[in-house]
User: Fold this.
Amino acid sequence: MPETTGPAATASAPSRVTVCRDCCCGTVKVPGDHAAQTARLRSAVPVRVSACLDVCEQANVVVVQPSAEARRAGARPVWLGLVNDPDATEDVIAWVNAGGPGTAPMPEILDLYAFDPGAAGRGPGRG
Assistant:
């Protein structure tokens, strides 16, 4: 079961982040300081760490979940791939703190990272 930690890791959280950390995401296969990225996210927003999300070609994957209220209003999770830069991590944090999907507009820079996980070639044995 994924672990949720970080500020406001409660029902009142504006949204939360799921970070893939398994076969590709968060490993030496993808350059970067993955521990620092996860720690930075956890210091600022509610975080769930997940096993493989089956979109390894997009590593590192971060999924921004809408709040329960925004989800009831129709907001859906936003999948972000290739989040390997500290600036991108900060952009994710800023969006979540502003309210996330369905509450705050996604920063334009995050359009560069957004992808449809159904169109990314998901399937068993990826990675």
